[in-house]
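Contributing new records

If you add data, match the layout below exactly. Sequence lines come first and carry their own label; structure lines follow with theirs. Keep one chain per record. Anything else will be rejected by the validation script.
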Amino acid sequence: MSDVKKEGYKFFQDICVPCYHTDASFFLKPSSFMDLAQEIAYWAAQSLGFGYDDLHIHHSAWVLSRMHFHFVDPPRWRDDVRLYTWHKGLNGLFYLRDFQLKDMQGKDLVTCTSSWVVIDVETRRMVRPEDLEHLLAVEEGIDHAIEGPCPKTAIPRGVEAEYCGEHVVAYSDVDIIGHTNNARYVVWAMDALDYGTVSGRRVRDVFINFNRETTPGTAVRLYRYCESENVYYVEGRVDDKPVFCVKIVY
């Protein structure tokens, strides 16, 4: 049973940061923030009547399309924190959901905005928003954790990205709808950078764009591009077509 609670149109969950969500410096990892955000998003949507079980009846599921999260002051192992989320309604084809991770005194630790679509799990095609109006007629939030939706993220045109290896989608990558879990792409991106870079510096912003799903056995070729000493891109490609791109800002 979930311990997610509701306060107005926001849902929240109190968490003591576990060791397995932190790095060697005891700070919350970017991929772990995504894991926590994904879980509370599921529970919040379920409470509003458009969660996994509700969409499953219609052979549909939520899929994360874009995300931007900003580390204000990342928590550490054993810190008590409170994670908030709220549904912000439709923006074009995307459904927006924001998140805030705060300490117990109410100070922002991580802020986040995300853009989602609904797909038909059998055809893997996007479900049109007008076909979901009966499910999504709920109160929408007016606050912004980050004002403005996450922009499209891609390696800048005209630059040559460096090939840095291949990852074959395996058991540990796959989620409940049979494709690669969104947080795993950030794991791959961080692992594609030099260990001294990712372990010795604090991430400030992460931008993610998901272009196509990947499934078990898919070989994803990884490319990286260093725009400056503080900005890195990692892109995954299948058949030379991008399936995801992560921008990491230190």
